[in-house]
Amino acid sequence: MKLMKKRAAASSFRMPLGGRLLQGSGLGAFSSRNLGPAPRQAHSSPLLRLRLPPGRAWLVKGLLYLAFIALIGRALWVQVITTNFYQQQGDLRFIRTIELPAMRGRILDRHGNILASSIPVKTIWADPETLEADPRKVAELAQLLKLNAAELQRRLSLDRQFVYVKRQVDIDTARKVQALGIKGIYFSPSYKRYYPEGSAAAQLVGFTDLENQGQAGVELTFQKDLAGHSGTRKVMRDRLGNVIEDVGGGVPPVNGDDVQLSIDSKIQYLTYQALKDAVVNNKAKNGSAVVLDATNGQVLAMANYPSFDPNHRRDMTQSDMRNYALTDTFEPGSVMKPITIAAALQAGVVTPQTEFHTAPGCLNVYGNNICDDLDNGTIALPQVIQYSSNVATSKIVMRMNPRIQWDMYTAVGLGQRPQVPFPGAASGLVRPWEKWRPIDAVTQGFGYGISVSTFQLAHAYLLFANHGRIIPATLLKSTATPQGVQVVSPLVAREMRSMLALVTQQGGTAPGAAVPGYTTGGKTGTAWIWKGKGYDKHLFRAQFVGMAPIGHPRIVMAISVDQPSGGKHFGGDVSAPVFASVVPQALRILGVPPDLPVKPDVAPAITAAAQPSKPASALHKEGA
């Protein structure tokens, strides 16, 4: 009875499906019991009855397992072992490192006035691949940036991802360009160098290129100090190059250091203007001038003409860039006589009372005829300087050992590169005394056979202004007391200053260097210029080196004008007026009180050439 009920219950779970019976999974008693073969259906597929060999099944399973193991290994390789590599590859496509330019340090004068500074500008560039601009927009862009429209269109059509449109664009112009709304035009921050003094200090200060790298002058000399260090910023860009996120990890820029020069910008401007007038009015080739503070050797001004505007260098030439005061050397002529005579005084070869017979105005020395401009007769040592006598100077040199002469020249820095940080500073030429012929010592005594620069002349005359000590000259402002070398005694220096004072008085070679309110002194020099195989007697270089006040000099100034051709060529006529124009104003700027009474109704001293006619014996010019 119970058996029949169980069969009835089992039969209630059977459901026909395609000739087969489905058994409920919940009836464990029937799952293991064989109820016999099911009735065969005529339309059943033989594939359903196919049984694979056991070996092939394990092969398939093994391949599936190996595939899963390979996928897991690859995932470990990508996600764990080489994750940094793939991260870097992703960053290369979306992360960009933007350079943050450092602001270049300023160049300042001794009072902190700016000689060179950097102002913010924009660099405008384009991505030609994403650029969307019709010819009309390109023409507007070219007009704003003052570019050739056809050339700009050509560059924007290049198959590149980066093209400079224009660099160092001022902020206002960049805003106008941005207002055009040209897709594919981008802006990057940058800096442009600005020079407030313009042409007046161009060769001294120098200039930078588009990369803000110093190319000349102080800008080049102090490149490492001024440049600073650029920074970086990491950003994420989209496919169009737009910055969409700052991802950090950048380095801030380090701005450059300021450099403070010893230059006084007011004295620099005065010197430049006076030199420019001398070169232009005398139709000269070029000119240079150096003003030194006699108490510490600091350069107050260094001017050259012709010059250029470093803010607009389109028409600049190579000659305009030359700092003639430091880089060009020449035979100085009679400005060498005080240095030669100082050596003789120090050695005891002569005294201020020593007299010299110069008649008839010429002297044959070792087969060479040396002459003065006038027959000065018998003169004492002070008049050798006052009248600039070549004959008397030659006699002094012939009494002196050449080694004494050479020692003096080298002690004041001649024949040596100036110890100032400036590119291209020339050393000049002073040959070893052992190689001198007897005539060489004589001609060098009055400025031939030796070459110097304008800067070297100004530095050498510090010997007289600084009580017989030669101190180093410098372009940098410093409060330290300079350490000098005693070359001649204070007595010799004082005697030399009294002789130099005669030059700027009536009867000397440079009365045009006298200034109201201050005592002055100096020496003129007019030298023929060597051309080809000899001296061209029609080409001259005019020099003047002076100081003021003569009792206690505060300023030493040297001026050199090359090849004046306007009717005057003597140093007293061409270069001395530059000294007279600059020195009184410079002394007032420095706060030096006058040491002479000033007569307001008396005009400044005029040059000897402009005076009423006098006997020929009363007028003296330096010997050439």
Provide a descriptive summary of the structure in words.
- The longest helix has 28 residues, at 54-81.
- The radius of gyration is 45 Å and the shape is elongated.
- Strands 4, 5, 6, 7 and 12 form a five-stranded mixed beta sheet that branches.
- With 624 residues, it is α+β, with helices and mostly antiparallel strands.
- The chain has 23 helices and 23 strands.
- 33% of the residues lie in helices and 21% in strands.
- The protein starts with a helix and ends in a 35-residue tail after the last helix.
Give me the secondary-structure topology.
Layout: H1 2-11, E1 15-17, E2 20-22, H2 28-31, H3 54-81, H4 83-94, E3 95-100, E4 107-108, E5 114-126, H5 135-145, H6 149-156, E6 163-169, H7 171-179, E7 185-194, H8 202-205, E8 207-208, E9 214-216, H9 217-221, H10 223-227, E10 231-237, E11 243-246, E12 259-260, H11 265-281, E13 286-293, E14 299-305, H12 318-321, H13 324-327, H14 337-347, E15 355-357, E16 362-365, E17 368-371, E18 378-380, H15 381-387, H16 390-398, H17 402-411, H18 438-445, H19 454-460, H20 462-465, E19 469-470, E20 485-486, H21 490-503, E21 521-531, E22 534-548, E23 555-562, H22 571-574, H23 576-589
Helix pairs in contact: 5-6, 11-23, 14-17, 14-21, 15-21, 16-18
